[in-house]
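Appendix C: a fully annotated inverse folding record. The material below is reproduced so that readers can follow the format used throughout the book. The structure is listed first as tokens, followed by the designed sequence.
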């Protein structure tokens, strides 16, 4: 298959063509010309998707709740990172924003990147 040409992906049509080629050659042996073609096309596809279809970072509280679920943790497990049971409740119910010390502690406890936790998010006013 020496006639395979790799070109930049500049449009949605190019993107669809590249996806079809990768799908057709997916089972190619690694290191073979076809396997190399899939590897290079996959890199181009990832770059195109990152530019044209970015995935926004998760909401900080949603990220905390997701990691709690993944790790089988309860609200009580967050107390060393956030504070009292009431403070944990205020944070998870979006009545109070995360502070920098909380972000640092949650990053260590839950292995969530700090850049996710420091994003602004909506809090509810205590009306």
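Designed amino acids, in order:
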């Amino acid at each position: 298959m020496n006639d395979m040409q790799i070109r930049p992906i500049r449009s949605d049509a190019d993107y669809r063509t590249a996806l079809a080629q990768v799908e057709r050659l997916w089972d190619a042996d690694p290191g073979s010309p076809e396997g190399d073609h899939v590897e290079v096309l996959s890199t181009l596809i990832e770059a195109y998707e990152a530019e044209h279809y970015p995935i926004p970072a998760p909401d900080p509280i949603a990220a905390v709740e997701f990691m709690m679920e993944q790790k089988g943790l309860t609200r009580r497990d967050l107390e060393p990172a956030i504070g009292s049971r009431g403070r944990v409740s205020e944070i998870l119910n979006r009545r109070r924003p995360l502070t920098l010390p909380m972000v640092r502690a949650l990053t260590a406890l839950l292995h969530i990147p700090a850049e996710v936790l420091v994003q602004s998010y909506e809090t509810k006013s205590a009306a």
